[in-house]
Amino acid sequence: MWEPVDVACHRCRITLPLLDAPVPREAWWKFLYEHAYHPVELMWEHSEAHERIDIDYVEVNSDIRSDPSFAEYAGEWTGRALALHPRPVARAVAGIVRRAQDAMDAHEWRAAPADAVVAERLVRSMDFAPPPGETVDDAAVLARLATVEATLERLRRAAAEPLGEHFGTLLNDLLSALPTPADLPPDELRAESGPLASPRLWDTERALRLIQHLLWSITHRSA
Predict the structure, then answer these.
(1) Single pTM value for the model
(2) Angstrom distance (rounded) from CA 70 to CA 115
(3) Which residues pair with 8 in a beta bridge?
(4) Band (222; pLDDT cuts 50, 70, 90)
(5) CA 165 to CA 69: how far, in whole Å?
(6) Which of 162, 167, 198, 211 has the fewest CB atoms within 10 Å distance of its CB?
(7) Residues 193, 139: Cα–Cα separation, whole Å
(8) Distance (Å, rounded) from C-alpha 52 to C-alpha 178?
């Protein structure tokens, strides 16, 4: 029986389904052109390798609004430069998130009664999936930065609450990997932006998206 296959570039954090149709084939050739000398892997849909693909990866033709279609990726995708830019903060956070998920899957995660309540409160205030091709002006950059800073402050306050050992440690580890306000000076972010968002800002938003997904998992497991 035929099983779907994806190709992933682990440097740029992008995956592409391999489909035998005209537009997907064009996207495949574009992928080869862009990533031929990068660490690329073919993955069966239900393989162990596929399990390592986290929500920070851009997935061509997914149902997530921030990801490109086959046609967009094969053509002049406006978000290409930002989406393929290195995301060091998101990757550091991804490692922390993966370890937490592994602990949950191995039933090693010990939750306290307050954990799910705090996680649900945090996740309700988070919605980070900005399209990389979204054009911004100074006002948009400052608005997005304000949202990021408010979320970072909520995470800091949550870490100070009486949580279970594992959840408390997780939040502290995440805060250590995330930027501080001093790392995100508004004037520099505005200067780095245009027409797309600052890579530093988008990197932080992608990191928060990973955390958002993990928090949802914590609330779901505790339901």
Answers:
(1) 0.90
(2) 40
(3) 15, 41
(4) low
(5) 42
(6) 162
(7) 11
(8) 21
Neighbours of 113 (CB within 10 A): 10
Same domain for 114 and 66: no
| Cα dihedral 41→45→47→53 (10° resolution) | 60
In terms of domains, do 100 and 206 share one?
Answer: yes
Provide, rounded to the nearest whole percent, the portion of the chain with pLDDT above 90.
78
Are 119 and 194 contained in the same domain? Answer: yes
**CA 56, CA 58: separation in Å to the nearest integer?**
6
Same domain, 96 and 69: no
pLDDT, tens digit (0-9, with 9 covering 90-100), for 43-86: 988 888 888 888 899 999 998 888 999 999 999 999 999 999 99
User: Which structural domain, as residue segments, surrounds residue 24?
Assistant: 5-77
Same domain for 202 and 159:
yes
Place of tokens 């919605």: 127
CA neighbor of 186 nearest in space, from 139, 223, 220: 139
Residues 167-215: tens digit of each pLDDT: 999 999 999 999 999 999 999 999 999 999 999 999 999 999 999 999 9
Q: Rounded to an integer, what distance in angstroms lies between the CA atom of residue 55 and that of residue 112? A: 26
CA distances from 105 to 23, 181, 199, 212 (A): 38, 34, 33, 18
**Whether residue 72 is found in the same domain as residue 97:** no
Q: For the chain, what is the domain count?
A: 2
Instruction: Give the single-character DSSP code of 88.
Output: H
Query: Does residue 200 share a domain with residue 116?
Result: yes
